[in-house]
Structure formats: C-alpha cells, structure tokens
Amino acid sequence: MAQPSDTPQAGNSAKSQTGCKKGRSLPPKLMIQTGRFVWTQMWHLMMSNLAPRNKVGEYIRPESQFRNAISSAPNATYPPTAGRYKLYVGWGCPWAHRTLVVRALKGLEEAIAVSIVSPAPEEGGWILDVPEVGCRTLADLYELAAPGYAGRCTVPVLWDGSTKTIVNNESSDIIVMLNSEMNAFAKHPELDLYPNELKATIDEWNDKIYHSVNNGVYRCGFAQTQDAYETACKGVFATLNEIDQVLTNQQYVCGDRITLTDVRLFTTLFRFDIVYYGLFKCNRRRIQDYEHLGPYLRDLYHFPGVADTCNLEAVKREYYSNLFPLNPGGIIPIGPDIML
Fold first, then answer.
1. Which of 191, 272, 311, 334 has the greatest number of C-beta atoms within 10 Å?
2. What letters, b where the CB count within 10 A reaches 16 and e where it falls short, cover 198-235?
3. For the chain, what percentages of helix, strand and coil (3-state, to nearest 5) are there?
C-alpha cells in the first residue's frame, strides 16, 4: 500500500507554502539577536541598581553612612553597656558575618543580642525574620533611626535599643568596637584581635585584602565589562597567592596569633568555593586546592563559636536565589562538597 507523501502536490504547492509562511515563527537568528539585545539592556538596568559602576564598568561600593562608635570615653553618647546594643545581620552577608565572628571569639553573646534579616528581592531589600520595634523591614529600621533617610539599607547594623537609633553600619568599625570596647562583658577579654604592636601590619593587610579579595570578588561578579572583570579577577588571585605563600612560614596572616585581618579574610574564604568561584566567576582556583589557604580556612572555622556563625545553606540560597541578574533561573547548585 502506498504511504502518504510529505511532499506537497503540484496543485496545492503555492497554497501550502503560503500557509507555512503565515504560521512561521521568527527566524532563530533574529530571535537570538532580539533576545540578547533586550536581555542586555535589562541586565545593565538591573545591575545599575544592584551594583553602581564607574565609566569603565567597575563596581564601586558605596560608603556606609552611620559611623558613630561605642566608647568608654567620658560623656560618650554610646557607652559600653550589656544588653543595650543589638546586631542586625543576614546569614549570607560576609560583612555582617565579620561581626558575628568577633562576637563569638570575644564571648559577647550574652551582652549583644542578634536579629536576623533575610533578603527579599521582590520587595527590594531585607526583611526582619521577626518584626520588632514596629519594623518589618530593614528599611523601616533605618527610617526609625533617621526619618527621611534615602540611602542604602545594608547590614550589619549596630543598633542602640535605648535611643532607638543606628550607631554604626560599617562592619570594619563595628568589629574594632566589639574587640576593645565591650571587654567588661566579654567571656574572653584577654583575646585582643587588634593589638597595638601589630596595628600597622593589620591595617596594611586589611587595606590590601579589602580591595583585592573582600571587595575584589564583588568587583568580579558585578563587573559590567570584560576588562573590568579580568582586572578584578587577576587582583583576587594575586593576593590569594601572596597570602598562601605567607602562610608557608606562619599560622596567621599577621604572625602567630589570630587578628581582625584573619576575621575579615575568613568570611570571604568561607563563601569562596560555594559562591564566588562559580556565581562570581572567580574560577581560577578553589580555596580548598591551595596548599596553605585550605587548612588555614579550616583552622579558623574550628575556633570555638565560629562554626555557629556559618550557615552554608543560607549562603548558597541567598546568593543564588536573590542575585537575579547573575542567576536568572534561581537554581541553587547542589555542590560543591567542601571539607571544613
């Protein structure tokens, strides 16, 4: 028996071809070109709000706006007081994580409370896991502290419960305060993470590590040009390689004792293999593949109390689910498996 033919008969060839044209979708090439153009324009628009850039596409981190301090000086506005201050932090944020690590190392858990906030991109900011002081969002908290505030609402926040205001929202300031100003309430007041004899060395390393590693991974992930990305990525690994060499002969970055430099580096290294390596394209090398940086990370992780400040699953969820311009599908990777 003859089978039906897929070839149009001569008599209805023109009609079939016309019908085919009417039902045809856009050619693949045009679809791709249009899609790329639309997505690129939307991506730049979203990135301009997520990550401000300069003229060459480099990410520029805005300055923190609240820079007051807890101080034991006479007549200080914010004197050291147990139970008066609170930290607002997000599990995914490395800057907030610093404050939790110092709080744990110094044993200040009973003196300084913590409230957790979680990112909610659809609302454009952080949401308090448990509403308090009449606030549901971090933006509400900023508004309570400074009515009419129009800046960025970031974590960490060091909050003064007595005056209902923000003392400071700059992590580098807060960890110095926690190290020195709350010793009367610390379980480990003898631990000095910023000793006078090492301050010059600590400050020098902090400046280098902040620019090329702490903020460097963001300059990779948020770069909006190839040149900006490559410059940042080379800087990240140049400094990581340098630190790995330094750790050949000493246990910590500034010598034989843990300092604020190690704390500041730790929170970036903890996130590196699970987030920055893939999502931020810092994929030249994993931390666990370094001869000295890998063991150094594990050593810091096992300091008493530090592991309790690390929420690996929340870190993955908050980065991969919420940074939509970098991961539009919102798919959270299963791995990598890391040994800590």
1. 272
2. beeebeebbebbbebbbbbbbbbbbbbeeebbebbbeb
3. 50, 10, 40
Average the pLDDT over 169-184 and give the result: 98
218 is catalytic: yes
Q: Residue 63: pLDDT band by 50, 70, 90 thresholds?
A: confident
Biggest CA-to-CA distance, the chain: 105
Q: Which of 59, 85, 88, 93 is catalytic?
A: 93
Contacts of 334 (CB under 8 A, 6+ apart): none
135 is catalytic: no
Give the pLDDT confidence of 107-119 residue by residue, as tens digits. 999 999 999 999 9
Candidates 149, 210, 218, 252; catalytic one: 218
The CA radius of gyration of the chain, in Å to the nearest whole number, is 26
DSSP label of 159: E
Write down all domains in the chain, each with its CATH number in brackets: 85-185 (3.40.30.10), 196-322 (1.20.1050.10)
Check if the beta carbon of residue 173 is closer than 8 Å to that of residue 69. yes
This model's pTM is above 0.90: no
